[in-house]
Amino acid sequence: MPKTLEGQITMEKTPSYFVTNEAPRRIHSMAKDTKLIVVVRDPVTRAISDYTQTLSKKPEIPTFEVLAFKNRTLGLIDASWSAIRIGIYALHLENWLQYFPLSQILFVSGERLITDPAGEMAKVQDFLGLKRIVTEKHFYFNKTKGFPCLKKPEDSSAPRCLGKSKGRTHPKIDPDVIHRLRKFYKPFNVMFYQMTGQDFQWEQEESDK
Q1: Per-residue pLDDT at 206 exceeds 60
Q2: Using an 8 Å Cβ cutoff, are 77 and 68 in contact?
Q3: What's the burial of 204, exposed, middle or buried (CB within 10 Å: 0-12/13-18/19+)?
Q4: pLDDT of 41-53, one tens digit each?
Q5: Non-local CB neighbours of 115 within 8 Å, separated by 6+ positions
Q6: Which annotated residues bind 3'-phosphoadenylyl sulfate (predicted)?
Q7: How do strand 36-40 and strand 69-71 relate by DSSP bridges?
Q8: Taking Cα atoms as reference points, which of 50, 42, 45 lies closest to residue 67?
């Protein structure tokens, strides 16, 4: 990590840290006062998105349905498949809480980051002890991508949007598979809500459809 001067904050982003067993211990031994920000989203949508990303690089891989089950007839989910294992957030958080207090971890809702980016960014800035510089005027919604883009209100430069790897169209998944995945994740989600003191309302995804 680069040296940080007084009044500066150094940030680093690696999504795999959250699911890597050795990461909490290593980060704690390097800087135990580090503040951690974790962006989480509905684990079912996350798994499909993960699969979509892999599919774009390896079109020959089996279907999502084949990879998601150990036994389709019995409805046994294959929790060893990384696309599914990553979404068992409670399991990974347990590991981090052995080293860091909850007060040093901010959980950002991936859903609200799309629907209300300024609101989520306000929480991030508060958590980091920063003035709320980034506000509604810094965002505009890109309908093509389905994501907000970042713009600088003070100049006319082109807004910064997410790259080509984001916003891909997901393959159509059998509704029964999605229903089984929701049942699989539900107890883990409830545990995660209890551990964080936040209700991300992922169960409502199903009742809304």
Answers
A1: no
A2: yes
A3: exposed
A4: 999 999 999 999 9
A5: none
A6: 41, 49, 166-170
A7: unpaired
A8: 50
Q: Which residues are annotated as a binding site?
A: 41, 49, 166-170
Tens of pLDDT, residues 119-177? 999 999 999 999 999 999 889 887 777 788 888 767 767 777 876 666 667 889 999 99
Q: How many CA atoms lie within 13 A of 8 on its CB side?
A: 7
User: To which residue do tokens 């580090």 refer?
Assistant: 34
What's the residue count for the chain? Answer: 209
Residues 100 and 36 sit within 8 Å (Cβ to Cβ): yes
Q: What angle in degrees, to the nearest 10, is found between the helix axes of 43-57 and 175-196?
A: 120
The 8 Å CB, 24+ separation contacts for 44-47 are 44/87, 44/178, 44/181, 44/182, 44/185, 44/202, 44/205, 45/205, 46/83, 46/86, 46/87, 46/110, 47/83, 47/84, 47/86, 47/87, 47/181
User: What is the rounded average pLDDT of the residues 184-191?
Assistant: 97
What pLDDT is attached to residue 163?
67
